[in-house]
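Appendix B. Extra example for self-study. Work through it before the problem class; the solution is given directly after the inputs so you can check yourself.
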Amino acid sequence: MKTRREKIIDQIFFWRECKEYGLSVWVCPNFLFLVMGILTIVGMLATYEISQGFTEEGFAALLVALVALVIFVPGSIIVQSFEKMATANRMKTEFVSIVSHQLRSPSSAVKWSLNLLMGNRLGDLTPKQKEYLDLVHYNNERMIKLVNDLLNISRIEKGELFLNQNELDVAELIKKVVDSLSPLAKSSNINLNFNPPHNGELKVYGDEVYVGVVIYNLVDNAIRYSKKEGDVEVKAFLIEDKKVRVEVKDNGVGIPKKEQALIFQKFFRSKNIAKHQSDGTGIGLFIAKAVVEQMGGAIGFSSKEDEGSTFWFEVPTGQRKSKKTFI
Amino acid sequence: MSKKILFAEDEEVLLRSLTEILTQEGYDVTGVMDGESAIEQVTKNNPDLILLDLILPKKDGFEVLKSLKAGETTKHIPVIVLTNLESLGDISRALEAGASAYLVKANYDLEDVLKKIEAVLGT
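Solution. Structure tokens for the complete assembly:
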């Protein structure tokens, strides 16, 4: 809880609170209120100055009051509605953050209990028991990933996504992702291919976990949105020693042209995709974009409906100036 | 003599499962479910390591950490924070208050937690 002093400081430095919730100063209700106040005063003074020249004192006062009213009433209605939207947005972000934290408690309890059982620390298991526990484990990990995704969204919105800057080998990361996703590819009859370039060529500075998430999300999407049989090809190469480019190509369902502009928005799912895959939240690409852009890179795609998509991202090879960066 | 670990955690399943694995590995574990008892037990038992959740009844983990690091006899005991909070503010607050490590429960397997404990204890 904030102390009284902190609350007063918050009110003086009101833009800090707006920034915390991802609002720029120009749409910050408190700032708009201040601007409106100044505008009203200026308007009143100007009216007084002008009206003094050609009308008597009493009428001038009336005019000033009228002008003040005309500026103030619509202005304050606009500011109020801005404030309502900002509050709703803040409540939503906080709600997501609280709910996801609460969900972590039971899922970590399940995780640790499973660890005990599956590590044979409570006695040996029959193969069949182990098989079912594997399933429970897989699904619990899925839930943890979902909760982490939700938390990442609220972190991105609050500008609190924290990324390490360590030296990473992109090819190594891709290999790991391809290995972990090959069972999914196999069960969907998809050929998942990655031909790594020479070892150690693709070095970048970034956060291993988050760069892994970016690659994972792209490859996972490519597999899920392929048709019954298909190929997913992952390529990675160096551009002029300055950037590492990763491409993930599928020959799947593709993205309809009119929906392409919305693809990196959070919670967006294409209409034709819902037919093929009911599983999915529309969070992955939103997070991928935030991470790549925070690394100073770019992300994009080309796609044709019924023919497939190629998603790519490029990140600089050099170290960024600050050791720790925030969005 | 086996090393003594104090584990403060209000979620019973988590308390039981980590206690189980630590006991199997030969540690002497005492579990407490709130912050006040954590401080009480530390002074009584003088453990080699403290595992501390941040959200605890009566006194939260930050308060426990603060009071332990303020005590002459308790300030040298290493503390591993085990929590599901993960905001930058919480992490830096806990590390500044003197925690040796910060682990997010949902992201770590029990065996990983065990390894971290062994690393901190040097066993």
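Self-check: Residues 12-24 of chain B form the longest helix (13 residues). If your reasoning did not lead you there, revisit section 3.
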